[in-house]
């Protein structure tokens, strides 16, 4: 035996995410893929309005509620 044991990635990450600021021009994303181990865990998110565009984010960043919120949250009215 031997080697390093890594705890499994949570099996039930939210499928919907809202970014606190625009990423590639978008704020609402859906989970496409997840991978990595330990501190190297990541997810790939796709904007709801732009299929095929992928954004890779570390799980550490995704857990930061100042950057990401689970679910599709309402957005404040635009100032433009």
Describe this entry's structure for a reader.
- With 80 residues, this protein is mostly beta strands.
- It is 5% helix and 39% strand.
- It has one helix at 59-62; strands at 16-23, 26-35, 42-47, 55-58, 68-70.
- A 5-stranded antiparallel sheet has the order 4-3-2-1-5.
- Strand 1 (16-23) and strand 2 form a beta hairpin.
- The radius of gyration is 14 Å and the shape is globular.
- The model has no long low-confidence stretch (mean pLDDT 85).
Describe the global form. globular
Number of DSSP-assigned strands: 5
Q: Assign the structural class, choosing from mainly alpha, mainly beta, alpha/beta, alpha+beta, or little secondary structure.
A: mainly beta
Nearest-integer average pLDDT: 85
pLDDT < 50 stretches: none
How many helices in DSSP terms? 1
Amino- and carboxy-terminal Cα gap: 60 Å
CA gyration radius, whole angstroms: 14 Å
Q: Going across the biggest sheet, name each strand in turn.
A: 4-3-2-1-5
Helix content: under 10%
Strand content: 35-45%
